[in-house]
């Protein structure tokens, strides 16, 4: 579409973005509220942030969550990237439809079903539940998201460079690390970040698959939210929102720079040839 | 992708097999096997034990034991689901709540996607980023943010009271209305993104041609824009509807005690009643209900990728 926006378009955009952002902005503002009553403004204060640091349970939960998110995102990135390569590059093989079905199904599957089924698996395997079971559960559903993100990067990929390397005798594994990986790297990084935030956010699957000693931050937040809105929870949420927002914006700036650099390099290379 | 027309490579190296094998095995163990276990347990009986069900069979005891187990399978849990009105009411009301919410999301999302597609080219990446960003922030936090706004002494009621629009606080929290708001808010990006993608591709010259031929703008919108954006509308609606049916966090935190949704029923059956066989049966039926929209969605996606 090329025609300019009308007043109606501008109004609906402003209203739409206000709807999307206002609740989060209000939550952030009220985390700096002096008063314990969440809905009455009692002046600016950072005391809730200070009291957070003294809350050992919350700090512990945050630590567990970060460890789970980091490990599962890293593992999911490896498995998801492999799965994406299989979907785009491996051609036909027996059971391919089942494979792609298993990649796409978790994206729309209700979390309660994923959580319940994984828990029953861990019970059947007689594994002690805790950090490792949550980590494995998160790896499983996050790797499907990574696969989809990396796949979209692989589809628009010039295969001839890879073929050239292989024709010159470069073994496949080396070709992957020298040629394929650097080109799909933005997709892989985006996949890792998505996996990390999915794990950071997850309440339902973690609640099913966790065990004693591995309470994650969302579980902690959830159990306190059920008791009511408190400024402390607002403060935790604000930190999480800030953390994720900074991460996503930083990543998008880095990716854009890299893209621009690559385009400059390509132009320079072609310029030198001519 | 059309699976039939993908050629198999002339020869596959050991590395090639390993590449397929690792993710395949992972998904078989952690995705497919768990479903078979859920199905198995849904056919077993509840027991006061840890774990709280009577195993129907044990793979370690040989075929005879498996056969004995199979003959002991009971559909009792499924019969129970039909007898207790709570379950079918939960399924029905989940589908209705998800349906209404999807429609509301479409009504709110369409003007946003349309406005984005009509905005200057230079502004579009920023707008796109603004739509995606809330999707990265925690789902739980976004739902929680609404509690402070919607409750009786919350910010919305304070605003309306001070403006003199209402004389008594409205009860919104712990009603189905709060659940609609929560679902629309949480899933809006899922609808706007595919819709924007199809609206952006729309050829503006078609609208100009219609205008030149004397077609009023509203009619041109109805006859050209809407039909051409239909693939985006359908994709977006599925992406909202399917996860909304099994939603747990939103009805639990924003809904009332009379808000019935199957995700909530399954959760309380599992965590409060500790009835694993019945919650497994609930999960199996929920999966069967969702298979229909999921298959429709995948067919539609396939058609779309073939057209491009």
From TrEMBL, chain A:
<feature type="transmembrane region" description="Helical">
    <location>
        <begin position="7"/>
        <end position="32"/>
    </location>
</feature>
<keyword id="KW-0813">Transport</keyword>
<feature type="transmembrane region" description="Helical">
    <location>
        <begin position="131"/>
        <end position="155"/>
    </location>
</feature>
<dbReference type="InterPro" id="IPR035906">
    <property type="entry name" value="MetI-like_sf"/>
</dbReference>
<keyword id="KW-1003">Cell membrane</keyword>
<keyword id="KW-1133">Transmembrane helix</keyword>
<feature type="transmembrane region" description="Helical">
    <location>
        <begin position="233"/>
        <end position="254"/>
    </location>
</feature>
<dbReference type="InterPro" id="IPR000515">
    <property type="entry name" value="MetI-like"/>
</dbReference>
<feature type="domain" description="ABC transmembrane type-1">
    <location>
        <begin position="62"/>
        <end position="254"/>
    </location>
</feature>
<dbReference type="Pfam" id="PF00528">
    <property type="entry name" value="BPD_transp_1"/>
</dbReference>
<protein>
    <submittedName>
        <fullName>ABC transporter permease</fullName>
    </submittedName>
</protein>
<feature type="transmembrane region" description="Helical">
    <location>
        <begin position="61"/>
        <end position="87"/>
    </location>
</feature>
<dbReference type="InterPro" id="IPR051789">
    <property type="entry name" value="Bact_Polyamine_Transport"/>
</dbReference>
<feature type="transmembrane region" description="Helical">
    <location>
        <begin position="176"/>
        <end position="198"/>
    </location>
</feature>
<feature type="transmembrane region" description="Helical">
    <location>
        <begin position="99"/>
        <end position="125"/>
    </location>
</feature>
<comment type="similarity">
    <text>Belongs to the binding-protein-dependent transport system permease family. CysTW subfamily.</text>
</comment>
<keyword id="KW-0812">Transmembrane</keyword>
<keyword id="KW-0472">Membrane</keyword>
From TrEMBL, chain B:
<comment type="similarity">
    <text>Belongs to the binding-protein-dependent transport system permease family. CysTW subfamily.</text>
</comment>
<keyword id="KW-0812">Transmembrane</keyword>
<feature type="transmembrane region" description="Helical">
    <location>
        <begin position="276"/>
        <end position="297"/>
    </location>
</feature>
<feature type="transmembrane region" description="Helical">
    <location>
        <begin position="91"/>
        <end position="114"/>
    </location>
</feature>
<dbReference type="InterPro" id="IPR035906">
    <property type="entry name" value="MetI-like_sf"/>
</dbReference>
<protein>
    <submittedName>
        <fullName>ABC transporter permease subunit</fullName>
    </submittedName>
</protein>
<keyword id="KW-1133">Transmembrane helix</keyword>
<feature type="transmembrane region" description="Helical">
    <location>
        <begin position="177"/>
        <end position="199"/>
    </location>
</feature>
<keyword id="KW-0472">Membrane</keyword>
<dbReference type="InterPro" id="IPR000515">
    <property type="entry name" value="MetI-like"/>
</dbReference>
<feature type="domain" description="ABC transmembrane type-1">
    <location>
        <begin position="91"/>
        <end position="297"/>
    </location>
</feature>
<dbReference type="Pfam" id="PF00528">
    <property type="entry name" value="BPD_transp_1"/>
</dbReference>
<feature type="transmembrane region" description="Helical">
    <location>
        <begin position="126"/>
        <end position="147"/>
    </location>
</feature>
<feature type="transmembrane region" description="Helical">
    <location>
        <begin position="220"/>
        <end position="245"/>
    </location>
</feature>
<feature type="transmembrane region" description="Helical">
    <location>
        <begin position="14"/>
        <end position="37"/>
    </location>
</feature>
<keyword id="KW-0813">Transport</keyword>
<keyword id="KW-1003">Cell membrane</keyword>
